[in-house]
């Protein structure tokens, strides 16, 4: 990849700046590559109880946004650089026409490759004249006319990951430009960062966005390198806790585990981000996608659709439009659910759970084994007294389970599938904020 990008520069940069640019690029590639493989450290506190909210709200940026996790669509997972203004308009149309917009999927986010290969003579970012000939302002107007919001992409480095101009040292000008276009959301990436610490690179864009007077959702995409959950709540509205997801079971499960360790740091105003949804892109089974969507909803992760919504299957729509699962993600209590028990060979019989408003619990029984298993949620792991009685609602079957459960709840779960429930105790035996 580095060789390709160097060849690119021979064609698009003048001889005067070429030597310096290549040196900067090489150092940036090396530093970025080394940063990407650093292990993510664990939080300094002990393992959290499901109801531990000691860090809840402590770090949140108070700009009035992200009271619940953001929902919408992003272009990268399916289209990568193959984007243009027609695609973005058609996606907005589809979100409205098929009913996803009314369920909360309101952000239409353009990822990398929207801009020209260099800034204008005035130093401004310029939309790619071939793919976005009408400009971003006209596109924002169209999106807003649909009752939706427009998101855009830049980078806290000298270049974006696909070697378009980055916003490092251009924060004020770029933020002002985004605001003048009517942008509602900024995804801010981490490539070609010159080895500068993210705690130094990301706050200037926060200040620049705030200075515009326009409320713009600020999504930090720092890949979890410097444990952003520990500091990013004062900077942005969400922060990536992991490397990029890909459309595979191995990637999705690994990322879920990495994001889980930071559960106590999320809350209204700022959310842990384990990356966008892969549901509908074809690399996983229906059961695996159901698990993916269930766990992301439970973890209060952003629900950003990453498939082609213009051509989604009925199964994909069924998963993404489950109002009961979406309600878990958007619950106003805003406490991230987490992994609370692991049993069986390979530790693949898993229970994930978290508190909801109305003194309820969301409980997901996730089978990560290669065969069907029985998974049991025990009251001790859920923070309930053993004699507590709860009613159980199945969120995927949309039905109440007959009778009440006491002390434990067991169910058979197919390989790589996930069943999701709401438990409503008749006697409250745990403490909620």
From TrEMBL:
One of its GO terms (molecular function) is alpha-galactosidase activity. Its EC number is 3.2.1.22. It catalyses: Hydrolysis of terminal, non-reducing alpha-D-galactose residues in alpha-D-galactosides, including galactose oligosaccharides, galactomannans and galactolipids. Residues 349-422 form the Alpha galactosidase C-terminal domain. Keywords: Disulfide bond, Glycosidase, Hydrolase, Membrane, Signal, Transmembrane, Transmembrane helix. InterPro entries: Aldolase_TIM, GH, Glyco_hydro_27, Glyco_hydro_27/36_CS, Glyco_hydro_b, Melibiase_C. It comes from the Eukaryota. GO terms for biological process: carbohydrate metabolic process. The chain crosses the membrane at residues 6-31. CDD domains: GH27. Pfam families: Melibiase_2, Melibiase_C. Belongs to the glycosyl hydrolase 27 family. This is Alpha-galactosidase. It comes from Papaver somniferum.
């Amino acid at each position: 990849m580095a060789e390709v990008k160097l060849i690119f520069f021979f064609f698009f940069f003048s001889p005067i700046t070429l030597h310096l640019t290549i040196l900067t690029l090489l150092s940036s590639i090396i530093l970025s590559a080394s940063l990407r493989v650093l292990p993510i450290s664990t939080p300094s506190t002990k393992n959290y109880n499901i109801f531990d909210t000691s860090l809840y709200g402590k770090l949140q940026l108070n700009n009035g946004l992200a009271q619940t996790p953001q929902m919408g669509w992003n272009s990268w997972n399916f289209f990568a650089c193959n984007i243009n203004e027609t695609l973005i308009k058609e996606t907005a149309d589809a979100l409205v026409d098929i009913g996803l917009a009314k369920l909360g999927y309101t952000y239409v986010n353009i990822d990398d490759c929207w801009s020209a290969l260099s800034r204008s003579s005035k130093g401004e970012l310029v939309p790619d004249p071939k793919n976005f000939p009408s400009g971003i302002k006209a596109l924002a107007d169209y999106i807003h006319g649909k009752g939706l919001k427009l998101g855009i992409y830049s980078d806290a480095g000298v270049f974006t990951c696909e070697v378009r101009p980055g916003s490092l040292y251009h924060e004020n000008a770029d933020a002002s430009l985004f605001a003048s276009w009517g942008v509602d959301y900024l995804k801010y990436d981490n490539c070609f960062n010159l080895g500068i610490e993210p705690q130094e690179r990301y706050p200037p864009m926060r200040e620049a966005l705030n200075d515009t007077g326009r409320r713009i959702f600020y999504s930090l995409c720092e890949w979890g390198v410097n444990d952003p959950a520990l500091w990013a709540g004062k900077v942005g509205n969400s922060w990536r806790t992991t490397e990029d997801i890909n459309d595979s079971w191995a990637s999705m499960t690994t990322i879920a585990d990495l994001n889980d360790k930071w559960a106590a740091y999320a809350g209204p105003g700022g959310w842990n981000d384990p990356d966008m949804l892969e549901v509908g892109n074809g690399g996983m089974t229906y059961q695996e996608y159901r698990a993916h969507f269930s766990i992301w909803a439970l973890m209060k992760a952003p629900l950003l659709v990453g498939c082609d919504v213009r051509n989604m299957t009925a199964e994909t729509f069924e998963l993404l439009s489950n109002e009961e699962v979406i309600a878990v993600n958007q619950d106003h209590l805003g406490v991230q659910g987490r992994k609370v028990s692991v049993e069986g060979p390979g530790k693949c019989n898993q229970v994930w759970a978290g508190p909801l408003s109305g003194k309820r619990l969301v409980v997901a029984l996730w089978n990560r084994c290669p065969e069907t298993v029985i998974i049991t949620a025990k009251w001790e792991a859920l923070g309930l007294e053993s004699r507590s009685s709860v009613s159980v609602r199945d969120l995927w079957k949309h039905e109440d389970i007959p009778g009440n459960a006491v002390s434990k709840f067991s169910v058979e779960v197919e390989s790589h599938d996930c069943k999701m429930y709401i438990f409503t105790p008749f006697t409250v035996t745990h403490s909620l904020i």
